[in-house]
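User: Can you fold this complex?
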Amino acid sequence: MDFLIFQVPILMVQASLDGILLGILFALIAYGMALQWGVMNIINIAQGDLVILGGYITYFMYLSGIHPALGVIVAPAIMYFVGVGLYKLVINKVVDRDLFISILATFGISILFMQLMNFAFGADVVLANSDFGTTMLFNNSVTLPNSKIFAAVISIIFAIGLVFYMKKSKLGRAIRATAQNARAAKILGVDTEKVYAATFGINAALCGVAGALVAITFTIHPYMGLPYTIRSFMIVIIAGLGNLPGVAVSGMGLGVFEEFADYILGTEFRIGSVFLLLVLILVYRRFKLSRKREYLK
Amino acid sequence: MKNNNIILYAAILIFGVVAPFVLPAFKVQLSILCILIVLALTWNIQGGEMGYNTFGNILFYGLGMYLCASVQVGMFFPLAEWTESGGEKTFVHTPSQFFQGMAFGLLVAAIVPTIVAGLIGYAILGLRGHYFAICTLGLGVAAGEISGGIEIIGAGQGFTTPPFPEVGNLEARGEFFYFLSFIVLILTFVSVKAIYSTRFKLILNAIRDNEDKAEAMGIQTMKYKIIGWMISAFFCGLAGGIMGGLVGYIDSTDVAFDGREMGVFMVLMAILGGKGTLWGPVIGATIFHIFKEGFWTFFLGWQYVALGVLIVVIVIYFPEGIMGWLREKYPERFGEVVDEADRKAQVELK
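Assistant: Here's the predicted assembly.
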């Protein structure tokens, strides 16, 4: 326990700003998860590993001399096809089955990805340095790396872009129709198989963007995927499916919580506190609902 | 049929007793197999019979492991200095100290996780389906991360369990742990078999098939769910305690709360053998262990890739498991009455 943050109040501003910028990034990943959960009724444990894979694509661009900021365009383009491939190979066999089957199957994919990335890229913690510099606020007492601001702005742009795409485009309408009622959509001539593949691809592409941003602002490591999955799951269950402003707000809330936990409990308990928070939120909701003899659906 | 069963049990029992002397090279593997079967059997109480697919039994396993080792050390020596020395031979257990410590340790390792399961169960067994699965997954990982930050049980550098004492010139470590785990296996199997022949099992099945209806029938589902989880936790804690002594070294995320390996293994073994059957987890665990050891030896370094593929293949293509497949093929053997004419008609229809 360390209460420095209460003795030096300016650290709270620092933690809050860091948390909000981080949370916007989480919200982007959670958006992808909400999308495929809502449309395909699948919980993808490999979500975080897709993020890390996107990060490695950016890292390799950085190594070969291309500015890593371009990763936010290249990584989603590659990841879209990874997502579609994954759908064709595995996910299409678990779409209409028990949810636990999809959890286990994607857990298997997650382990597979983790290890393949470990072989391909090594077990070192790496980052793609963007050389964006830092911004100083409040008499130099709060420092914000510009890369974090960049990450937040790009996340918002992609999220808004996707919202418009879902509203206006033909595929977007097909996706929304399938989410509402897959059978009816099929009858009305929507090729749901294609819609599912595209949805999973879009989800993977969003993970790719987020991964590129993670590689620029933080660090990536083959085994760091699962916390991102848990974070996005948590954000989705707090906000509810299809509640975009809710996803954004709860994402930021989670980011701020994490930064404060980091300052107060210490960095070694950071991930642990995220997982504990998930359990606490679920338990809280369960007791609240059980008063009305209901349960989380 | 009855006679056949007795012969089968006798054969397994004799094999179990003789095995470490006939196959001395596989003593450790056989002990691990016993532990794996225990874990699969107890997972099946939740996942198979009750329909609550948990990733959280690893919590009790890891808890039992840490508790057993801590008690075994803490009864005779200062725990903090032991972990700090990292297993240096400054403190040595005499044989009587070792066995006393182990006995008390296993007792604590069985009882405390049971209580913990009761408390946690009250909180989270009200969740259903995938919310329960993810919540337990979170619990397991959180336990690993948090125990990795606690200094007195070794934090990141791990915890060395007391080495087996030398009794005279006998090197009996392998036999000791083998028989310990074999006894726990028999204990678990007998208890689970006994449970499965009572009303309790029917209640668990009712919860699995339709919890709301079970509740409407006047069954206090929460009570039975908690009891079911506590039974699992009891045996998981015991298994963890033995495994800690067998491995000789406890690390928070790689050995004790190893959600990525043991936590998934127990689910996988039960599914491979067949959920919701008595023998399924036993068969599944045995086959899985043989497969795994093969992979681990021949594909060294690629084992997680193999594991990932294995999970996907088992889950997608064999969700009913071996017992489920057998049941479909030979329904008569499972006591299902099949009308011969009806069956022929069905075959012709195809």
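Chain B has a mean pLDDT of 82. The first helix of chain B runs from residue 2 to 22.
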